[in-house]
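Obj.: predict assembly geometry.
Materials: sequence records (below).
Method: joint structure prediction, all chains together.
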Amino acid sequence: MKVRVLVRLKPGIMDVQGAAVKRALAGLGFSEIAELRIGKVIDIELDEARSGEARTRVGEMCGQLLANPILEEYSMEIVTDLAPREVAG
Amino acid sequence: MKVRVLVRLKPGIMDVQGAAVKRALAGLGFSEIAELRIGKVIDIELDEARSGEARTRVGEMCGQLLANPILEEYSMEIVTDLAPREVAG
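Observations (raw structure tokens):
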């Protein structure tokens, strides 16, 4: 079971990195950007075939480690089509 | 037009951060993780109503700034349902 977790700063929390990238892109001629925010994508492959169970477990991971509940919010998507990955070395 | 860009390390490139998080989660009792990789999600709101044009421009942004073509690969999704965001301050 593959789960994609998106961790983003909560709305209202200033995204310094996103603002810097938006400004840099404007400097490169991309002036049409109204807003740009940067977060994390965490691709998890679980030894768990039931999607409900996977969702519960990944929610626990987010609560305990993956997201900072003060600054961040998360969403998750069960995916079956993540690009195949291999670990080096 | 809202575009979601996912920037990930290429398969085969060692993901040190992902390996550390996987190990930390195993230490918390989440031993069912077969693999975990971490990348970036970049949510862009563009002043551009045509999705083809938006795709082209965001592809240029990725090539010039958002992704490191040596280490990273990117994919993009045109979305109409990003959670509403507001910028602080």
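Conclusions so far: The domain at 2-79 of chain B is CATH 3.30.1280.10 (Mth169; Chain: A ,).
To do: check interface contacts against the pulldown list.
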